[in-house]
What does this fold into?
Amino acid sequence: MEKIPEISKAMEELWAEVNILTSRIGNQAAMAKPDSKVWSISEEFGHMILSAGPIAKVLNLGYEQFQNQALPPRKALSYSGLEDLYWEILGNQNVLAPSRYISDQDNPPSFDEQQQKWTSIGHGLIVGLELWSEEKIDAVQLKHPLLKYLTLREMLFFTHIHTTHHFNSLHRKASLLSRLN
It folds into this structure.
C-alpha cells in the first residue's frame, strides 16, 4: 500500500470494516465503561474520528493551500517503515492521546452521530485523495503530535495504521461485551 490508488482502496476497505463492526453495537453497549481507566467503545471511536477527521480536511483543501510550505522536501517512509517507527515509539514511551483527540466525555455525541461522522470522514478521505498526485502528497509535510513532521503520504499511512489498531481494540471490546450479555 504505497501509491494513491492502493491507499484509497485500503482506506475504503478499512472504513467499511469499521462501519460493519460499529453497526452491530448498540448505543448502550457503546457507552458501557467496564473500567474508569479504559475507554468505552464510544470514547475510542470518538478518538478515531477526531484523529482521522483532520486528514480528510487537509486532503480536501488541495495542494494549493500548502505549496508555499517552508519545510525542505524529503523522501517519505514506506508504510512498513512508518509502522515500525510508530510501534517503536509507543513501546518506549507512555503515550497518551493529546486532549484535542479525545472526545468530549461530558457531552458525548450519540453512537449514531459518531457512525455518521465516521462515514463522512471516510468519504472525505476517498474524495480528497483524488485531488492529489503522487508527487504532491510527498511534497507536503504536516506536524504529527508524536512523530514530528510527516509527509501527507506518511500521514495517510499513519491514519491507516492507527485506525487498524483502534479497530482491533473495538473488535475485542465488542466481543467481550457480547460474551457478557
